[in-house]
Amino acid sequence: MTETTASTPPKSPAGARSEIPPPAGDAGPSLAGKPDRVTAVSNLALGSLLIAIEFLDDWVDNNVPTQAQALEQRAKAQDVLLPQSEWEATYGRPEADRVRLAVMGIAASANARAVRATRFVLRTGGRTVDAANWPLDRIFLLKPLRYGRDRITEAANQQVDRWVEAGRALDTGSRAVAEVSLSRAAQDSVGIVTVEPHVQELIQEIVAAQGTSMTTEIIKEVREHTVSLDLGIDRAWATLRGRPTPGIAKPDFAVAIPDKKPDPKEMAGRPYLGGAYAGFASRVLAFSIDLFVLIIALIVAFVFVKGIISIFNLAQLFQTLFGTTGHGTLRIVSSGVLGTLVACVYWIFGWTFLGATVGKLVMGLRVVGPSGSRVGFWRSLRRVIGYFISAFTLGLGFLWVIVNKRRHSWADKLAGTSVVYAWHARPDETFLADLND
């Protein structure tokens, strides 16, 4: 009889091999040991991936609806469910999109058939296994085969259990490594920023300086290139008229420019146009920026009005009063009137109180009166009327800037205003040289 001593470990019973050894490269349970670099990197990568997958899975469960839920929610947003024919007539895709929709239909049909085929294979396989086990369970002569089947099944289950335990240990350990590592990295980053005051000040100065200098430099380059285009357009018009140089008159009043005048070395070889009449390209770009701002403002206004209509159920009231056709016409007319009013208020407010709109401020332009004074309300109103007249004549009133020596449009003629450069305008040297070639 063999005695068990402290130096002789007891024998493990059968099936005790499911214990998971520590991962290779780790120094055991001691916290003082450090894993090798490959193990550390693999644990960190796997743990981070598992955490990211779990987060993505939770987000999908909470935020991604089914197709039925999405269609129902979109239908509720439309305030009313349309008949199928009217829905297709209103929101349907053009005839040229039939091929793409047909391909999508084929894919959906193939997916449904693949799902049905997979279910059929699984059901057939289960029935086949049950049919094969039936004689083993009921015929006495096949009892040895039944025992062999049971032993193979038990061994397979034990192996799966060992894999499950190994995966659970790896999952827990990798997540712990990733969480501890990321937490330490975050603490170190926060500690550097919060503990060191000079680091905070340096970061703030760098961010502020880079943002300001980058924006200023971009605006400066855009302005210089646009002034070069102004001069190029003037020279092209002078060439068409058979004149060697463009005849551009300068205003007889001074324009206040708050910025510091550029260095003479920077201005070498380039004409100075600060306070001069603004050219066609600069005004077109400023007008384009204003249109973009107006579009954003109109979108916000339409969303606000639509919200008011939805809250107070005014759509049903309008439909009852004016009918379906009248309601649609009223909506189109009201949208046009609202857009026109927003544009007029935007232009009049900018010219009256600021001397410029957002687009003109970005491009360094200013609208002034006959003697360089600020534009009043009535001049701004006449200038808006001139805008609409210029637009209704297919833009001829805007193109008049190229022809006129003082670069006046029809709106300027009607209101007695001028548009001048309110910055130390000069063309871009390289771009201007390209225009001359």
Describe it.
There is one protein chain. With 437 residues, the protein is mostly helical. Helices cover 69% and strands 2% of the residues. It contains 13 helices and two strands. The protein has helices spanning 37-63, 67-77, 84-91, 98-138, 143-195, 197-240, 280-312, 314-354, 358-363, 377-392, 396-403, 410-415, 429-436; strands at 365-368, 418-421. Strands 1-2 form a two-stranded antiparallel sheet. Helix 6 (197-240) packs across helix 7 and helix 8 crosses helix 10. The longest helix has 53 residues, at 143-195. The N and C termini lie far apart (109 Å). The relative contact order is 0.07.
A few lines on this structure:
It contains 13 helices and two strands; from the N terminus they run αααααααααβαααβα. With about 425 residues, the chain is mainly α.
Unreliable parts: 1-21, 23-32
**What count of structural domains?**
2
Mean pLDDT across all residues, rounded?
75
General form: elongated
Number of helices: 13
- How many strand elements? 2
The main pleated sheet reads as: 2 strands, antiparallel
* Order of neighbouring strands in the sheet with most strands: 1-2
Give the SSE order as H and E letters. HHHHHHHHHEHHHEH
Give the termini separation: 109 Å
| Beta-strand proportion | under 5%
Structural class: mainly alpha
Roughly how many Å is the radius of gyration? 39 Å
Q: How helix-rich are the residues, as a percent range?
A: 55-70%
What's the SSE blueprint?
Blueprint lengths: L36 H27 L3 H11 L6 H8 L6 H41 L4 H53 L1 H44 L39 H33 L1 H41 L3 H6 L1 E4 L8 H16 L3 H8 L6 H6 L2 E4 L7 H8 L1
Antiparallel strand pairs: 1-2
Helix pairs in contact: 1-5, 6-7, 6-13, 7-8, 8-10
